[in-house]
Amino acid sequence: MKYYEGYTKVLVSVDCIIFGFDEGKLKILIGRRKYNPGRGEWSLYGGFVAADEDVDDAAKRTLYELTGMRHIYMNQVGAFGRVDRDPGERVVSIAYYALINVSEYDEKLRLEHGLEWVDVDNIPQMYSDHNEMVSKAHRLMQDKLKTEPIGFRLLPHLFTLTQLQRLYEVVYGAELDKRNFRKRVKDMDFIEKTELIDKKSSKRGAYLYRFNRRIYDEEPNFKM
Amino acid sequence: MKYYEGYTKVLVSVDCIIFGFDEGKLKILIGRRKYNPGRGEWSLYGGFVAADEDVDDAAKRTLYELTGMRHIYMNQVGAFGRVDRDPGERVVSIAYYALINVSEYDEKLRLEHGLEWVDVDNIPQMYSDHNEMVSKAHRLMQDKLKTEPIGFRLLPHLFTLTQLQRLYEVVYGAELDKRNFRKRVKDMDFIEKTELIDKKSSKRGAYLYRFNRRIYDEEPNFKM
DNA sequence: TCAAAAGTGTTAGATTTACACCCATGA
DNA sequence: TCATGGGTGTAAATCTAACACTTTTGA
């Protein structure tokens, strides 16, 4: 039973902007296209949406293929639908951004897929409209970071306040005052101090903190 | 020349959430579905994306069909892509919201299309995932209103400060202090006072203001 | 012993909020 | 004349931003 006769169907794909925080920089994971059109050009990792698959699920599947991780934090960036955006054939693509903790990410998978981490401030020219996707994803992620505690998705489970501050500085592109920053953190009960000390990043050592989701869900007073 | 063999193609549509400000209320324009599936259910106005048409252009075309107006302020809400979202057939839909000045809108067209203005605080159950689309559009529009002067798109070319204040109150869902509101407006040079007086809404009469885009573009100091 | 990162409070300035009365006019 | 919406300023409270020194320890 066909209801909608006479309209053209098109391919729908998903493209993933995967953010990671590494060496004090915000980075995304990109690779070189393996096939034509555009073989060899820098590109986001993506895939086509299957007939019996929700678009969101296609994005989750694509992220899983790439990282081996499930339950990754993910948000839709939007649909990109210019007629000529893909030189091969008409494809409408839905972009998603995802945040991962680089230290949990399996390097082997990265190499298998031929992917590189590149600094968001130094993105090369990419295939089709992928640069636009990245800019929009970056902007949306920055906005989200101001109103929701998603930064923790980019950090190890345990982190120091200096790491957290660097993360905010890098995403906002501005330096923050250490004392003011720590004051604000102290007001957020869901950022829990542990008794553990990190000795990697300084001689003196720094307390490790963790994000407590239960406390956040009860009292989500967040403002950054 | 086919590059992407073996992947399923699907219908892509656009759906429009058209906001208007009327009788001191924020409203959207919806109608009853004329055909199956879902004949008779409340629904957004939409249409399919043509083979040679950008998705954004499909939204503009749809808005033009509906309103007879061009250059309508419009933003993408996002893609809605659940497999079973449309009971007829698989359709991925890209939602857009638009802001129009109700007083410029031709009532004849509204009646021709069988559309109604309904209060955003009192939206009936709608076809498929259209209620979700409306909620997300409303949220995005509220956020945008805080950082960009898009409210003017909902008002007549000339408006009183009381009208402007009501608009903000209705969109935010909160009352604002008259004196504080007017102070902020005074700081925004691009909201220009004219010598014209509106006599419709009060006996005393109120000065009419207008949005000056040129001044805004030069000095966009906006914060609401 | 010294370099490097961790940790800690106070104050001035800016912003935000609360609040009440007179004005002009048409009915 | 009075009911209705138009128009105006000030002060307290809150929030934000600027700022410098001591601690610990591994090399």
Ordered list of secondary-structure elements with their pairings:
2 copies of one chain form a homodimer.
Chain A: E1 9-22, E2 25-32, E3 42-43, E4 45-48, H1 55-67, E5 73-80, E6 91-99, H2 107-112, E7 115-119, H3 130-147, H4 161-172, H5 178-187, E8 191-198, E9 206-211, H6 213-218
Parallel strand pairs in A: 1-6
Antiparallel strand pairs in A: 1-2, 1-4, 2-3, 2-7, 5-6, 8-9
The structure holds a DNA duplex (27 and 27 nucleotides).
Overview of this structure, please?
Two copies of one chain form a homodimer. Chain A is of the alpha+beta class and 224 residues long. In chain A, 29% of the residues lie in helices and 29% in strands. Chain A contains six helices and nine strands; from the N terminus they run ββββαββαβαααββα. Chain A has helices at residues 55-67, 107-112, 130-147, 161-172, 178-187, 213-218, and strands at residues 9-22, 25-32, 42-43, 45-48, 73-80, 91-99, 115-119, 191-198, 206-211. In chain A, strands 1, 2, 3, 4, 5, 6 and 7 form a seven-stranded mixed beta sheet that branches. In chain A, strands 8-9 form a two-stranded antiparallel sheet. In chain A, strand 8 (191-198) and strand 9 form a beta hairpin. The longest helix of chain A is centred in the middle third of the chain and has 18 residues, at 130-147. The model of chain A has no long low-confidence stretch (mean pLDDT 95). The A-B interface holds A 2-4, 7-12, 35-37, 48-56, 58, 76, 78-83, 88-92, 94 and B 2-4, 7-12, 35-37, 48-56, 58, 76, 78-83, 88-92, 94. Strand 1 of chain A pairs antiparallel with strand 1 of chain B.
